[in-house]
Structures are given as structure tokens and as C-alpha cells.
Amino acid sequence: MEVYLSYLFLSSIFLLVGLYCSFLFQQRKLPPGSRGLPILGNLLQIGPNPHQSLARLAKKYGPLMTIYQGSVTTIVASSAAMAQLILQKHDADTSGRIIPDAITTLDHPSYSMAWLHAGEEWRLIRRILATFLTNSHKLDSLCELRHGSETSTNTTEWAMTELILHPDKMMRLRNEIAESVSQKGRIEESELLRMPFLQAVVKETMRLHLAVPFLLPHKTETNVSLKGYEIPKNTQVLVNAWAIARDSDSWENPTTFMPERFLDSEVDFRGQHFSYLPFGSGRRMCPGMPLAHRVVSLMIASLVYHFEWKLPHDMNPKEHDMTERFGLTLARAVPLVAVPITLI
């Protein structure tokens, strides 16, 4: 009996040592990062605003790092170069989805293209959307029908906030819209897409206040080699598009609202400029981009052209709360309250 117990004890020791050595070996192959606490991992470091805390951690551990959300190992890309490596070079290898429990509870993965496996059914749905809803000709013919979404609403709210805080830019935009209206007699959606300053405002809002700061979580479909690191199959991969859009290596005065930066610039949101990814890139790029672009442009133009706006109670713009509330989308922590004054 004693021999048996000794054998069992030694076997357990060897097993634990083997598992620990295997763990250390895996860590050597993964990108650098903070080990965090047992069981919790880096959850306490991440906190309520992970887009901000992971941007700070990336400055210490580099643009490709490893974090631990409890028992979930996650690779985080925080630079344009790393985003391009994942979303372009290894697009197919990282096209899987980590589906949150809240989504599976609602049975969304069975019907939503955002969560479906990138297989035949997913490709069919994407083709149907492109053919019957999101191509430019179809959107022109359905101009009286527009679908709102939380991301479009949030983007419009952030845009109006910035314009109220920058009245010179509000006036410049209103004048641009008024010039078009004087020629056409009304705001026409097709003309909005050709207004350079309006489009610069839309792009700058999407850069500074990214609606989905991490895009949607990716998952490796196979073992992937990234910059000499070995990422196992089924590992979660996040692209911190919020951090990339505020990277001083890519943007001058990155935290300042400057729509002018997009005038005479080739940078757009179609997924080819990896310093600017409001809709993602590659095969998992948001298929609703054309519709969202039009809806946001139309809402901003309508609000700016028809109304003058001011903060209530003669509030000093410097006192205005710009705190963000993190979720699947990035909204204002305190909803915008503004007073409209009818112009037309």
C-alpha cells in the first residue's frame, strides 16, 4: 500500500512538473506580455476600459502581445503593421470567431453573418447582401429606406459633440451643405458622398471615436506563425483599432479632432489603410460599411443644416464630459444634451 501511494505521489509530481514545463514552453513561443495573477490573469489590469488599458500595456510589451483573460489566452495587435500582418497576410488563418456567451444564449450565431464560420453559408449570405442591399446602385434605389443601428447612432452623437465643441468646423460644414442645397433645392444623399468636408468630418469622427474599438474578436483556425511567435489554433486575436487610430507614428496630433487631415488624403475606411480600420479589413470586414457610411453622412448633414446647436445652461465647452463607456460598441458615458435652434 505504501509503495502504491509513493508511486502515485511521484507520478503526480512528475505530471505537475511536466505540465508546468509545457506551460513555460508555450509562453516562450507566444508574444511577450504580463503574466497577471493566477486564475484571474490580467483581468484586474484590463479594467473597465480595455481599449485604453491594452494600449498602455502595448507601450511596455510591444505592438504584438499576449494577455490572459482568466483562462483565455488572447493575442493583441496594437499597430498598423501588426494589423496588416493579421488581417491581410494571415486573413484566412485568423478568420474564425470567438463567440461570447451572451451571443450564444440568444442563438445569434446561427443567423448572423458576423458570428458564422467563414464557410459556404457565410459566403452565400455575404453575396446576397452585396447584391441586394449594400451595393451603390441598390442603395440609390432604396434611398427612402434607411436602417439605423447602435454604431451609426453613436458615431453621429460623437460627431455632433465634436462639432458643437468646434463651432468653426460646424460653420464650415453648414456652408458646404448649404451651397449644395442652393443648387439642388434639398439635401440629396448622393451629393453628400461628394462633399469633401462632410466626408472629412465623418472619417475623423470614426477615427477618434471608433464605434467598435476591437472590431469583433478573431480566432486562429490553425497554428499561425506571427513575427517568429507561434500562435496555437483556437487562440483569440484582438486588433486594438482604437489604439492604432491614435498612434502618433501614424497620425499627427492623434487625440485632436482635425477633419482637415482627411482633405486631399487617400486614406479611407475600405480596409486598405491599416492605420485606419473603423470597419476592419479582409474577409471579416463589416459588410454594412456602404450603408453605415450613407446613414451617418445623412444624419450629420441633416442635423447641421437645419439647426444651430448649443450646450444647455451656457455650459463652458471645456467642462463638457467626454468620457467613454466601453461595451461591444464605444458610446458616450453621458449622453449628449444639446439645444437645437431652428435655422430652416
UniProtKB/TrEMBL annotation:
One of its GO terms (molecular function) is iron ion binding. Keywords: Heme, Iron, Membrane, Metal-binding, Monooxygenase, Oxidoreductase, Transmembrane, Transmembrane helix. The chain crosses the membrane at residues 6-25. It holds the Pfam family p450. Its cofactor is heme. It comes from the Eukaryota. InterPro entries: Cyt_P450 (IPR001128), Cyt_P450_CS (IPR017972), Cyt_P450_sf (IPR036396). The keyword Transferase does not apply. This is Cytochrome P450. It comes from Daucus carota subsp. sativus (Carrot). The lineage of its organism: Eukaryota, Viridiplantae, Streptophyta, Embryophyta, Tracheophyta.
